[in-house]
């Protein structure tokens, strides 16, 4: 084999491996609350974000019928079907990704931070497949049932772990159970997040087994715009997603399923989130000490990543680059040895 060909192949392999390594950071569990545990308040974050918040008491059980009149509930134009899946990533998400890939359809995934600790690889695959990643809190509590300070922490830990894995910060948010009031809405506004609910509920998480029938009826009843709600976390919900999508595509409404950011025409990710949190760069992560080390500034580019360290924990960028250089060293050594044997 010609040396140039070997060099070209090796260089391409190194580039692809390096690119994957840079984007494939595994979250450090000690940087985050325990899975499914309500995120602890952080005074530094709260003092920055909690400005002009309405004095509305915590509702211990959440709101039975929240008012969504100020929120996005559907796409803006006929024939648009905003396709969304909540509560993952999970053990069945890869199955759904295969279904969507086979049908050449992209969707929005509202991610629970706790799930990412166990399924960070699934989240990365979802993002790399071109799907839209959005926020869904750390522990999936009713938003109106937690304090202002706890809710801020729920959002920031959710955003931080996603950025750790995919390198960008989601701009879209959906409250668990659709539970929201003016207090929660103002906090989200201060963070610069876009609130998205839905106007077609599959009811799959509540046990419905007829999602395809329900979506088919909607897809054959005109072409008014839709944002639908399904779930990819459960063994009883994910298998219904494929037939439901088939029903949408076969409907007389000629719907085009798409991610919610696409139907709305808004940027999906926003690194300015961290400027709003701390005024400069990524927020501190420190669950042990009462004090919070400062964070360096970070790019507001949708593909930017931080280069700061927080206490003993390295940021996404540094951990990833170290891994990448390790990979490069190994690959380079293999290429060198291979070249020696060939020549």
The number of helical runs is: 11
Tell the overall outline.
Answer: globular
Distance between the termini: 9 Å
Main beta sheet: strand number and arrangement? 6 strands, parallel
**SS class:** alpha/beta
Proportion of residues in β-strands: 5-15%
Percent helix range? 40-55%
Unreliable residue stretches: 1-23, 286-343
Series of H and E elements: HHEHEHEHEHEEHEHEHHEEH
CATH class designation: Alpha Beta
Q: How many whole angstroms does the radius of gyration measure? A: 22 Å
CATH domain topology: TIM Barrel
CATH level-4 homologous superfamily: Glycoside hydrolase/deacetylase
CATH architecture: Alpha-Beta Barrel
**Number of DSSP strand runs:** 10
Q: How many separate structural domains?
A: 1
**Please, what is the average pLDDT?**
82
Transmembrane segments: 324-342
GO molecular function, one term: metal ion binding
Region (Disordered): 289-314
Domain NodB homology: 79-261
General description of the model:
- The chain has 343 residues and is of the alpha/beta class.
- The chain is 42% helix and 10% strand.
- It has one domain (34-305): Glycoside hydrolase/deacetylase (TIM Barrel, Alpha-Beta Barrel).
- It has helices at residues 3-23, 43-49, 93-103, 113-128, 148-166, 182-190, 211-219, 238-250, 260-264, 272-278, 316-342, and strands at residues 80-86, 108-111, 132-135, 172-173, 194-195, 200-201, 226-231, 256-258, 309-310, 313-314.
- The strands form three sheets. Strands 1, 2, 3, 6, 7 and 8 form a six-stranded parallel beta sheet that branches. The chain has a two-stranded parallel sheet with strand order 4-5. Strands 9-10 form a two-stranded antiparallel ribbon.
- Helix 3 packs parallel to helix 8 (238-250).
- Residues 1-23 and 286-343 have low confidence and may be disordered.
- It catalyses: [(1->4)-N-acetyl-beta-D-glucosaminyl](n) + n H2O = chitosan + n acetate.
- Its EC number is 3.5.1.41.
């Amino acid at each position: 084999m010609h040396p140039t060909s070997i060099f070209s192949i090796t260089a391409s392999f190194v580039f692809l491996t390096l690119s994957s390594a840079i984007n494939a950071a595994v979250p450090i569990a000690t940087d985050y609350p325990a899975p499914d545990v309500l995120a602890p308040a952080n005074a530094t974050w709260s003092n920055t974000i909690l400005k002009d918040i309405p004095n509305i008491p915590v509702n211990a059980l959440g709101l039975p019928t929240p008012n969504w009149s100020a929120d996005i509930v559907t796409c803006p134009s006929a024939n648009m079907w905003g396709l969304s899946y909540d509560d993952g990533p999970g053990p069945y998400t890869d199955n759904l990704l295969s279904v969507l890939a086979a049908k050449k359809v992209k969707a929005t995934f509202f991610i629970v931070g706790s799930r990412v600790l166990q399924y960070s690889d699934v989240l990365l695959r979802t993002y790399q497949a071109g799907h839209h990643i959005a926020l869904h809190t750390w522990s999936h509590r009713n938003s109106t049932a937690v304090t202002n300070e706890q809710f801020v922490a729920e959002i920031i830990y959710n955003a931080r772990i996603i950025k750790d894995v995919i390198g960008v910060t989601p701009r879209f948010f959906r409250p668990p159970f659709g539970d929201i009031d003016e207090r929660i809405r103002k906090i989200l506004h201060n963070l610069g997040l876009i609130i998205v609910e839905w106007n077609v509920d599959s009811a799959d998480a509540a046990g419905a087994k007829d999602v395809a029938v329900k979506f088919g009826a909607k897809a054959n009843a005109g072409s008014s715009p839709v944002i639908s709600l399904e779930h990819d976390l459960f063994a009883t919900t994910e298998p219904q997603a494929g037939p439901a999508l088939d029903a949408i595509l076969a409907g007389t409404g000629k719907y085009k399923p798409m991610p919610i950011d696409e139907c709305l025409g808004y940027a999906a990710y926003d690194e300015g989130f961290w400027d709003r949190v701390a005024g400069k760069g990524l927020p501190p992560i420190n669950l042990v000490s009462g004090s919070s080390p400062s964070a360096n500034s970070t790019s507001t580019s949708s593909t930017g990543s931080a280069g700061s360290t927080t206490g003993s924990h390295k940021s996404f960028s540094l951990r990833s680059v170290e891994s990448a250089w390790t990979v490069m060293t190994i690959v380079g050594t293999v290429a060198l040895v291979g070249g020696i044997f060939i020549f």
